[in-house]
Amino acid sequence: MVEVENELYALVVAVKHSDTYKEYDRWRNILKTNPELFKRVNEYRTENYKLQTSEDDGTLEERIEKFAAENEELSEEPRVRAFLDAELALCRMLQEITNRVVKGIDFE
Hints:
The protein is 85% helix and 0% strand. By secondary structure, it is mostly helical. It has a domain at 19-47 and 61-96. The protein is flat, with a radius of gyration of 17 Å. It starts with a helix and ends with a helix.
């Protein structure tokens, strides 16, 4: 297990040194300079996650549209948009890493 822990540490360091993570971290820190905006963005992210992971009870599309309309101004704010784009890029990178690990060990 020690070997895996060492390699995992190296992977974490590599992720933190990637341009993708640096961009995410830069925009996160920019948002943190405005605590109220950062709070609103985190609430937005939480609600968005809940919507994206909820089961469709026949009203999901309507709830998504309502959420988008209620948060249009926030999501179009340039700092927020840049942060959310950077966060999405980081999430995609982490998903790709996970997919490669699972595929590489032939995990079914």
